Amino acid sequence: MGIRSNHYDLAFEEFLRGRQIPYICVDERRRALLRNASLKSMDFIFYSDCGRNLLVDVQGRGFPT
Hints:
Number of helices: 1
Helix content: 10-25%
Mean pLDDT: 79
Distance between the termini: 32 Å
Radius of gyration: 13 Å
Largest sheet: 3 strands, antiparallel
Oligomer: single chain
């Protein structure tokens, strides 16, 4: 299990593991290597059976209190 910054990432990672979907956790620390570039930060890369690999950005949702 990779270093996850919030419970949304942890929950999604557990979902992938539970369904035995092959995935890679993206190391967000490497983003600093591209300071001058505009790059969307992805959380996971996972591989599907149909041949289309997906880049996944897990978004949490804030609810007003």
